[in-house]
Amino acid sequence: MRAEVERIRPQLPESVRMTVATDDAIFIWSSIVEVLKTLLSSLITLFLTPVLYHLLAGFTQPVNAIQQRLTAQLHDAARDAPQAVGAAAGSHGAASAGS
Questions:
Q1: How far is CA 57 from its chain centroid?
Q2: How confident is the model over 17-68, as pLDDT tens digits?
Q3: How far apart are the C-alpha atoms of 71 and 67, rounded to whole Å?
Q4: The dihedral of CA 26, 27, 32, 33: what is its sign?
Q5: Could you tell me the CA-to-CA distances from 97 to 16, 79, 92 in Å, in that order?
Q6: What are the CA-CA distances from residue 62 to residues 40, 68, 79 (Å)?
Q7: I need a surface site. Which of 5, 9, 14, 35 has the fewest CB within 10 A?
Q8: Inter-residue contact 18 to 4 (CB < 8 Å)
Q9: Which of residues 35 and 94 earns the better pLDDT score?
């Protein structure tokens, strides 16, 4: 708009003065930028959210498998521990009884 005023100004008579009363170009441009930022944010959320869910599931499944394996090993160790203690006490007692 300002460029158009400057282009026309030389053609006007000396008594006519032309100025720009309001310039909404800055407001309009900032509004367009805000709309584009919102659109970009929405697209990122729309496409990235499922990817993050898949990454999270892909991470938690191996961790869950490791946790189940360790729990099973601890359970087996706790179940076998009294038998190992009893066997060690029985062999020690038998050796001292024979002496």
A1: 13
A2: 877 778 788 899 999 999 999 999 999 888 888 888 888 888 888 888 899 9
A3: 6
A4: positive
A5: 128, 29, 9
A6: 33, 10, 26
A7: 14
A8: no
A9: 35
DSSP letter at 9 equals: G
DSSP 99: -
Mean pLDDT of 5-18: 83
What is the domain extent for residue 33? 2-98
Q: Categorize the per-residue pLDDT at 91 as very low, low, confident or very high, splitting at 50, 70 and 90.
A: low
For residue 48, the SS3 value is: helix
Residue in the block written with tokens 């496409």: 47
Q: Do residues 18 and 8 lie in contact, with contact meaning Cβ atoms separated by under 8 Å?
A: yes
Residue 2 has pLDDT above 80, yes or no: no
Per-residue tokens: 41: 């944010």
The single-letter code of the amino acid at 14 is E
Q: Tell me 11's DSSP state.
A: G
